[in-house]
Inverse folding.
């Protein structure tokens, strides 16, 4: 099958730096989920099997903490990236939620249900992508904070009562299920199964998007880029 | 003394001689002389002949030869033949003499034996029970500490097994313990100490069960009766006995609680193994199962009002999961509660008393402070006992459900819209085709 990016002119959507951030985030999160779930589901066969693969609880903990270190590294880098690089800052500004996002959402729902509505002209990031970004942001902050307290339990014991540990352990476990659903139900649908992109939106690997797709999915950005002369809109 | 029979006189003579032997064991030539003035030389005149055989109806001929060298090397070298083989009034003596008498000298042992399970069997004329010679040997008898003795510690277990592993004997006695149970001793820490390390202080069968006074475990007078086990083990493990005596288990046992564990309740009996042995009931990874044997048993928990769900709440904790999956450093029951000196948390001396928790947790987690001990440890997390956990759980149950509903709902809407548009396009296409000439 020919990837959709191979036909027609394309434009850079994600820089190599951004794609690497994504890949590292993806890899570390996957490892964290697998090693975390083996603990969460230690009482059923899949958890026991995973624990065995990971070299018991000690091996599991080691892998989990290394992956957590990678995740925190990427998150830290990302913060610096959006704060101190022009490109990163611009991306973040595009990700700011606006009232228009709610309106866009409503229009899309109406369109899909066959009600009279206007086809929204999305900018660089549509409401689905913004939701993905902020949902993951909130989830990883809660995971990193609770995870660090559980990681440095001996130190945390000096100030934290036992019930707080119990609470954090439950929170860390349940939040991981939320992240799993966010990624495996929502994100994978968004980038693989959605009819517009099936079987996959290739931009996370190639970094490029076809002009035709940009026009279709990010009309406002397409127009802006055309006006700025960055792309040839062919008119 | 006129009415005294000759047999009575002989008995008196034997008694006097026995007294002499006890008081004067290195009795020189005087001791060699037995009853009725018989000397060993006189006995050996016949019994020193290797060809001497007794032939009786139903017997194939049994040698009556006594090796003088065997006698000379035995503990009884200086005991006259007639001291044990009593009732010889003339020579040649009767064809059938009574069995060699040990009780004349060894009265204390004889009394203990009479009260033992073996002695009671003998009183009932049970031919399977061991008499003195069965364990100690005959003419070759050696002192219990003599390395050549049949009953010296390094060899003793074999003697018991000669009967207790004999299926012909066990088949006749349903009350005899299972041989597999006894055989486990060979692999136990005690058995290995004897056979592998050559320790003579390690207990063999008699070390725990007693010797001449041996009684079955259900006899209150038995050294291995549950009321006496701690004392018996404490005979060697004296320091542990002192710790155990102060525990809740010992206190319960003393008040007649039959389910309260004594040493063997946790350590096992014949299978006893060192805590460092992974197969041991008290090895770190097996401790939860061993304690759970009672503390997770519904009957016992209910009967004595013990705290419920100890096993489950532990198994679900970080400690429990870590221990279950091979981390031997992770805390098990004994790490926090103690073992021989285990006491309830209501006892201020208990390791898990509230005031002692920072120190107990601090053994592994040096940071644990008084604040840490505020919450309750391994409780069943219900709304009342752990409201924080309860509300976090409830929140996530609803939140995850709602999130899934939103995701799936949105997807359904998008797919529905996509299919609708496709149908429209198809229709528009066919309309266009139909409209064109």
């Amino acid at each position: 099958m020919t990837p959709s990016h191979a036909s027609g002119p394309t434009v850079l959507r994600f820089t190599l730096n951004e794609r690497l951030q994504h890949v590292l985030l993806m890899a570390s999160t996957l490892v964290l989920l697998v090693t975390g779930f083996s603990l969460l589901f230690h009482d059923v066969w899949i958890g026991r099997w995973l624990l065995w693969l990971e070299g018991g609880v000690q091996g599991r903990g080691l892998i989990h903490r290394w992956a957590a270190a990678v995740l925190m590294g990427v998150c830290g880098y990302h913060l610096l990236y959006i704060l101190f690089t022009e490109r990163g800052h611009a991306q973040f500004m595009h990700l700011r939620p606006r009232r228009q996002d709610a309106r866009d959402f409503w229009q899309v729902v109406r369109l899909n249900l066959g009600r009279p509505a206007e086809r929204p002209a999305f900018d660089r990031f549509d409401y689905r992508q913004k939701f993905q970004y902020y949902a993951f942001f909130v989830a990883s902050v809660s995971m990193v904070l609770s995870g660090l307290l559980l990681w440095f339990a001996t130190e945390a014991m000096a100030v934290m009562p036992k019930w707080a540990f119990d609470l954090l352990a439950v929170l860390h476990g349940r939040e991981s299920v939320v992240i799993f659903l966010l990624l495996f139900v929502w994100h994978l649908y968004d980038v693989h199964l959605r009819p517009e992109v099936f079987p996959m939106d290739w931009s996370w690997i190639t970094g490029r998007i076809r002009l035709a797709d940009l026009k279709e999915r990010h009309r406002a950005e397409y127009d802006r880029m055309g006006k700025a002369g960055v792309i040839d809109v062919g008119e | 003394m006129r009415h005294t029979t000759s047999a009575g006189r002989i008995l008196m003579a034997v008694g006097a001689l026995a007294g002499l032997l006890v008081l004067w064991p290195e009795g020189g030539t005087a001791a060699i002389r037995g009853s009725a003035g018989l000397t060993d030389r006189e006995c050996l005149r016949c019994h020193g002949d290797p060809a001497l055989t007794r032939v009786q109806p139903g017997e194939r001929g049994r040698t009556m030869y006594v090796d003088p060298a065997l006698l000379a090397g035995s503990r009884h070298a200086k005991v006259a033949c007639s001291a044990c083989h009593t009732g010889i009034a003339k020579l040649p003596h009767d064809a059938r003499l009574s069995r060699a008498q040990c009780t004349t000298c060894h009265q204390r042992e004889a009394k203990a034996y009479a009260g033992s399970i073996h002695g009671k069997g003998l009183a009932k004329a049970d031919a399977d029970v061991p008499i003195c010679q069965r364990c100690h040997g005959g003419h070759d008898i050696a002192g219990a500490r003599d390395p050549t003795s049949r009953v010296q510690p390094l060899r003793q277990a074999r003697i018991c097994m000669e009967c207790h592993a004999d299926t012909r004997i066990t088949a006749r006695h349903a009350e005899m313990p299972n041989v597999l149970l006894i055989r486990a001793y060979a692999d136990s820490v005690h058995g290995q100490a004897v056979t592998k390390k050559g320790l003579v202080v390690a207990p063999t069968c008699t070390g725990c069960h007693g010797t001449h006074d041996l009684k079955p475990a259900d006899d209150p007078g038995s050294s291995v009766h549950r009321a006496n086990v701690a004392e018996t083990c404490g005979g060697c493990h004296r320091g542990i006995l002192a710790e155990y005596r102060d525990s809740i288990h010992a206190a319960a046992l003393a008040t007649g609680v039959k389910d309260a564990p004594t040493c063997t309740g946790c350590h096992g009996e014949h299978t006893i193994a060192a805590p460092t042995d992974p197969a041991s009931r008290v090895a770190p990874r097996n401790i939860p199962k061993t304690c759970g044997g009672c503390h997770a048993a519904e009957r016992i928990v209910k009967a004595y009002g013990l705290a419920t769900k100890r096993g489950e709440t532990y198994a679900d904790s970080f400690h429990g999961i870590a221990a279950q999956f091979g981390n031997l450093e992770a805390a098990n029951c004994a790490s926090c509660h103690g073992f021989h000196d285990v006491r309830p948390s209501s006892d201020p001396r208990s390791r898990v008393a509230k005031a002692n928790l920072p120190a107990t947790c601090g053994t592994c987690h040096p940071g644990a402070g008084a604040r840490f001990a505020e919450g309750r440890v391994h409780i069943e997390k219900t709304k009342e006992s752990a409201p924080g956990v309860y509300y976090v759980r409830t929140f996530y149950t609803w939140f995850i459900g709602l999130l899934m509903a939103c995701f799936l709902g949105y997807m359904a809407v998008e797919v529905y819209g996509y299919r609708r548009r496709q149908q429209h396009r198809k229709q528009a296409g066919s309309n266009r085709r139909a409209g064109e000439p």
User: Anything to note?
Assistant: Residues 106-216 of chain B form one domain.
